[in-house]
Amino acid sequence: MIIGAHVSIAGGVENSVDHARQLGCETFQIFTKNQNQWREKAYTPEQVDLFRERLSTGSIKGSLLAAHDSYLINLCSPQPSLLARSRLAFLNEARRCAALGIPFLIFHPGSHMGQGEAWGLKMITQSINETLSELETKQVTLLLETTAGQGTNLGYHFEQLQEIISVVKQPEQVGICVDTCHIFAAGYDIRQEDEYEQTMEQLISVLGKDRVKAFHLNDSKNDFGSRVDRHERIGKGKIGKKVFQLLMHDKRWLQLPGFLEIPGGDEAFRQDIKTLIRLRKK
Questions:
Q1: Residues 256, 103: Cα–Cα separation, whole Å
Q2: N or C, which end of the chain has less CB nearby within 10 Å?
Q3: What's the CATH number for 2-281?
Q4: The pLDDT of residue 58 is above 90
């Protein structure tokens, strides 16, 4: 597995490349804009050129970069105005990825807000289909992220993700990002080798190995099956270090990107990247 982290774009998106290198990343994930604001603007040609130039001069694997969409986006909002705003913002996220040459856009499927899971899954599929029909390129793959199932969030069962993908009109542009904290909180045990293998076999059986394009490598502050999304540093949470060693050596996920999304700032990222590299060497 290729190890990376979610890095800041403070001071300009082009700075994220240098930031990732300083942390020891082999690849990285970013927000393409402030994730807590609707306000957005297209990148200038100068920003795009500088980002691509900096990426081309080092060892970071640009072919495995990812962006994560804004937390404000809800692709199955029952409020028509918020749904329309979410769909436009999501399309623009994908367009910014295309401009920068980022191949993956990772997103939480959506929250049905009391309308029911079947309704929510249908709306998410409609949102994905609308986005792909308007996106001018096929160079960006949309990655549904596994969720913890907190509140009315969808995507906490592999079967829900498959239900969404099964009716997407351009399935070749849709994949999966597996978050270790989220699946653990959702009730998929991965703490020991036998449990890990059962979960991976179930993942592959339901979704297919080739559908998995990336991982989020996070321990969990909360207990197994808690349905609570709270990340922890590698080996310091309820999951433990074993699963991350298994992931580093699992040939099924060879050369896939794994992104840290942990608390603690840059120093925590730097240390946990080193931890994962050590686990990969064992």
A1: 13
A2: C
A3: 3.20.20.150
A4: no
